[in-house]
Amino acid sequence: MKQSKLLLNTLRESPGEAEAASHQLLIRAGFIRQLASGIYTYLPLGRRVLRKIEQIVREEMDAADAQELLMPAMQPAELWKESGRYSLYGPELIRLQDRHDREFALGPTHEEVITTLVRSEINTYRKLPVILYQIQTKFRDERRPRFGLLRGREFLMKDAYSFDMDWEGLDRAYWSMFHAYERIFQRCGLNFRAVEADAGAIGGVGETHEFMALADIGEDTVVTCSFCDYAANLEQAESDRVTFGSNKSLSSDELKQETGLEAEKFYTPNIRTIEELIENLHIDPAEILKTVVFLADDRAVAVVVSGSDEINEVKVKNYLKAASLSIADPDAVMKLTGVTTGFIGPKDLSVPVLVDQSVVHMTKAIAGANEKDYHFRNVNVRRDIPLNYVGDFRNVKEGEHCPRCKEGTFKFYRGIEVGHVFKLGTKYSEHLGAAFLDAQGESKQMIMGCYGIGVSRLLSAVIEQHHDEDGMIWPISIAPMQVHIIPVSAKDEVQMGTAWQVYDRLMEHGAEVLLDDRDERPGVKFKDADLIGLPIRIVVGKGAADGLVEFMERSQREKELITLEEAVERVKGLL
Ligand code: 9G3
To answer: What is known of its domains (predicted)?
Structure first.
């Protein structure tokens, strides 16, 4: 293709609000343009990358016997009411009325639609199992769209749904999709980790894995073990059951033997936060019992962790099986406990207390006294605090022991979630009535799984991992074009002649070639080529007179002067 004909305008500067490297580079290289916040147009080169990624996804989905279909974006609200999710989602679910005032939602995902379809198309075990997928535009009205395609409001997703007769079938579908995802991300040149994840709002049953592209811009924290292959989203990463003896309260005679001082209230005027306690009492945060009051759905609960730890709200929410969890604001805390925030403690508190397993052993702890300006010292957790709800409620930390192998220690990475596989079970088939007759003629609910890849997000994630200060570096598997031919001077007939010769030879071999035929200064051509980042570059300059061209791969830096024939051979070798 002639670059002079290509709709491609490169920019020297990136838009002010673009923080992520991939966002800046995709805009500057003329691959995408923002139409509105979180909503993008893909220009020709951007579109070509998207098609390459889609093609890889299709090949691997089809290889896993999944069947492609295409579902509507406009979904009747009734479906979401039937599944009970219409009220579960707020402003993120884009809602609209049609001309007859009928309510619709723009699809953020398609569990309701696909289950309704399968309900009417399949009713016998003979037609199971089936995996159906689509590559389709999703709509989610993110409160804060950011980082370009990494968090958009309209984006391309491959979403697949499996339907099985039984749980073993689901397990087979799940791992088949899991391995297909590994192949897809490998083929896209992505450095990724599959991590144990939290099923979240989707309410899956059993395991779920996220596929994380390692990148500093990533919003997720990936926890990996230095020794075994344990890897988890921080939301899910298990804290090692700190072996501090039993988790149970002390029996009465144990209490008598329990040495240690009685819990003693002491005056701490206006000392409310962990920091203030540390500063004023000169103590270590690990001596403090941090107590935070949450609203779980509409119930109040207090969670207690060490002052040196962070509460993991996903773990708390899952433990309580709550649909929503939020920290109670000071007024709510006062109303619920009669205590001003900052002096809340787990001893004699009027709301249920969830105690993190790592503090149960403590005998000389500092805690709020549930009285303004007072704290307790010498709190003995097993003596003074009800231990009805003991669990893992904290975020693990780097360097901690792995709970699986006990050998390795945790290491943290930032990750971009590019894929997610879920075991759904019968959640949707039950609500929406997707049943089948089994071999004995019994009506059973289909067992479902769902599997998503953020296709447009994946495009950006690849660039987060493959760029340098001069621009993007496309893996050859998804590059918009494979070879960039750059004649140094468009006015030099020998150079242009040689350039077109190379072009024709490469086209004969089926290569995708962009020839920069613009009448521009060499510097401009090279800067643009660095920015666009096609994997193979052939510069046709003075050496053309001797039949020589300069060969370079964008991911390396060395340039070689070789003959035209050798250049063609080198390209063939790389394709
Ligand atoms: C909504 C809105 C946002 C959502 C959802 C529903 C995320 C929602 C989870 C999933 C689960 C899987 C199939 C492909 C893989 C992911 N954000 N999820 O269900 F109404 Cl506004 O989408 N779906």
So the answer is: Consists of three domains: the N-terminal catalytic domain, the editing domain and the C-terminal anticodon-binding domain.
Supply the residue whose CA is at minimum distance from atom 20 of ligand 1.
93
Q: In the CATH hierarchy, which fold is given to the domain comprising 47-238+411-463?
A: BirA Bifunctional Protein; domain 2 (3.30.930)
State how far the Cα of 233 lies from the Cα of 236, in Å rounded to an integer.
5
- Which residue has the CA at smallest separation from atom 1 of ligand 1? 108
Q: How far apart are CA 238 and CA 210, in angstroms?
A: 16
From ligand 1's centre to the CA of 108, what distance in Å?
6
Tell me which residues of the chain have a pLDDT lower than 70: 199-206, 242-249, 252, 255-259
Ligand 1 atom 15 nearest Cα: 452
Per residue in 186-221, pLDDT (tens digit) is 999 999 999 998 866 555 566 899 999 999 999 999
CATH superfamily of 252-391: YbaK/aminoacyl-tRNA synthetase-associated domain (3.90.960.10)
Closest to 183 (Cα-Cα) out of 574, 369, 453 = 453
**Residue 395 CB contacts under 8 Å (≥ 6 apart), including other chains:** 234, 237, 309, 310, 311, 312
Q: Give alpha helix (H) positions in 262-374.
A: 274-281, 313-320, 330-337
Atom of ligand 1 nearest to the CA of 141: 21
Tell me what pLDDT residue 11 has.
96
Structure tokens at 346: 């787990």
Ligand 1 interacting residues, C-beta cut-off 6 A: 89, 92-93, 108-109, 140, 159, 202, 420, 422, 450-452
HSE-up of 44 (CA within 13 Å, CB side)? Answer: 11
Cα 445 to middle of ligand 1, angstroms? 22
Q: Which of 39, 467, 472, 418 is nearest to 194 (CA)?
A: 418
What's the CA gap between 342 and 369, in Å, rounded?
Answer: 10
Q: Atom 9 (ligand 1): residue with closest C-alpha?
A: 202
